[in-house]
Amino acid sequence: MRVAMFGYQTWGHRTLQALLDSDHDVVLVVTHPKSEHAYEKIWSDSVADLAEEHGVPVLIRNRPDDDELFERLKEAAPDIIVANNWRTWIPPRIFDLPPRGTLNVHDSLLPKYAGFSPLIWALINGEPEVGVTAHMMNDELDAGDIVRQEAVPVGPTDTTTDLFHKTVDLIAPVTIGALDLIATGQTEFTKQDRSQASFFHKRSTEDIRMNWDWPAQDLERLVRAQSEPYPSAFTFHKGKRLEVLAAVVSEGRYGGTPGRIFYREGDGVVIVAGADARTGRNRGLAITRVRTEDGRELGATEYFTSMGGYLTSRP
Asked: How far apart are CA 251 and CA 233, in angstroms?
């Protein structure tokens, strides 16, 4: 089939590479301009550069709603559009233009985790698996019929970085497998169960602030979710920002006030956690590695030279 591709960052780059390696013909690429947003500078392989290396025409747009793009798309006459990590709304006159419609590739197991940063949100929420879904686009975000979907398990120590590498390798088989199925003429696919749908917003600084009223298990997942190269989860110690780079749930149970710097356990320093920590039934969060405001990375036992005092959510 003749394919027009809309995409951005490494997700879009992997999708375009899969298309270029396939039997399908890429006739036009649309991508976003480079961004200075913290999360958009991560996994930032250039879709535009890859397209130009292969002689594919490229259009740079924030939004695909102008008449020039529409005319260029009509001239390219694709059988189908493939989109992956396109960051703004695609209007119906675009996604309905090709005779085979538009196939969107999303890095979650739809209908759950539509929207933004699905891997981070899924890890924070303790999901047992993540994956990639190829679905037909309609006028509701990430809600169209599923053509192909593949999952991978979330391991007990996996970070978002680990999950990125696991799921990005699914892009080629999911995308090309879906396209090959569509090319056979099939038009009936799996309806999404909208009662199971969830939609998540973009991540921001507020979303990585540690709240010591959370259970230690939730805080430990937050630290893993905000793994390098993502911005690290942070707290405050003596009024200064302290990034938590690594942590585990404590072996022992610790009671008291959430945020209390309490006890050395192995290579970590245990912080009391959980709104009901006073009961003494909770595990704590054993922090093992931190980064200070001036950029020094230290083991927790090196940084916390004495017990006592508190970590707080704000200065």
From this structure: 22
